[in-house]
Amino acid sequence: MNASAELRTVPELIAHKRDGGELTDVELRSLVNRYATGELPDYQMAALAMAVFFRGMTPRETTAYTLAMRDSGRVMDLSAIPGKKVDKHSTGGVGDKISLSLAPIVAACGVPVPMMAGRGLGHTGGTLDKLEAIPGFHVDLTRKQFQRQLAKLGCAIIGQTAALAPADKRLYALRDVTATIESVPLITGSILSKKLAEGLDGLVMDVKVGRGAFMKNVDDARVLAKSLVRVGRGAGKDVRALLTRMDDPLGKMIGNALEVREAFLTLRGEGPADLLDLTLALGVEMLQLGGVAKGRADAERQLRAVMRDGKAVALAEKMVRAQGGDPRVVSEPDRLPSSEHRVVIKAQKPGFVQAVDALELGLVGVSLGAGRTTTDDVVDPRVGIELAVSVTEHVNVGQPLAYLHVNERKGHTQHVARVRDAFVLGPKPATRQPMVIERITR
Ligand code: URA
Description:
Elements: H1 3-6, H2 10-18, H3 25-36, H4 42-55, H5 59-70, E1 86-90, H6 98-108, E2 113-116, H7 127-131, H8 143-153, E3 155-158, H9 166-176, H10 184-197, E4 202-209, H11 218-234, E5 238-245, E6 253-254, H12 256-266, H13 273-289, H14 296-308, H15 311-322, E7 341-346, E8 351-356, H16 358-368, E9 384-387, E10 394-395, E11 400-406, H17 413-422, E12 423-426, E13 436-440
Parallel strand pairs: 1-4, 2-3, 4-5
Antiparallel strand pairs: 5-13, 6-9, 7-11, 8-10, 8-12, 9-11
The structure holds uracil.
Residues 91-92, 118, 121, 181, 186-187, 190-191 line the site of uracil.
């Protein structure tokens, strides 16, 4: 920290941001570094995060903050691994299990995927929590193990370590429980600090828009996408973003082990259409960034081929084994942990499903134990919600709308009512909208 940062105390810096002021690069770096080492307590960081939530950051501040977050730990050098290393990251959704299948699918096409993922955040699920539903699977590889696995298999999915983006590891957990998630600069810094630290060349951002996303409308999502592309490119990486729909849950499963099950279906090109469409759309971008496809049609052809011929499944099995998990779960999902009870929720009127409120189902999922409400909460991999019908489908009175996967049969009256109310039924079939709303490359 240099003299100018020492001129102001932390309460003064928080007050400056609270009142709409701009923090200098040195001030931001000092705050981030002190938070990463534990010198700055959670209560001051929470206050600062709330001030940023309300006041935002200028583009200059966002870039300085992101780079400081990246530099709070080591930055990996993957240049010894041949090929362009490409990752994708989602801004967070409900039922979003895409990474679990996309990483092995893309790696099976010859693009190395070094993936540093996150845990559940607010009502949205996290890739790490999902992977940990696989018995034995561990996400805390050392840097050397990560690099070795990437060189050997072409993909690895890990969490932040004390060495990589440690400031985000702490702040992510703090934001999760202090209502400071939905902020463009904080999301930009959080995502890109991890991504820039993992040593990638290209990144595809899945920026979610809608009821179940942190960005509720296209304009806000576009601002976030542009912030991610601008800061990422400024740091020398090839970054592009897709704005994608997150009004309804993605796929039919919400909850950690349930989502792993559905992700492994997608590896074979099976499973719900929305999941498959989005996997292909993101995969096409990744193969292009990785320089292994002649065009979009060729990229899609390659992705479909590895799903069909078993290469994606074989790679997922190798990844699970390499990270300590039981590889048989990929083809035998009944080996995954499951809940004690499956409580059916029936339709009380007939109709075509017009919408399913992803936010509400995400919140019910957290309340069942699939996510956290305090930083110390331990998630239950077994619990969640399974949709029996999704948008465009028809139900009659008494037919299942959804199932709760729970460990006690009783005590779910509220959950049942909330899930039932999340389904909007109407007299005419709704049309399914394309998953991708917009592509942002500049
Ligand atoms: N994903 C992240 O890694 N960070 C955020 O802030 C939101 C989504």
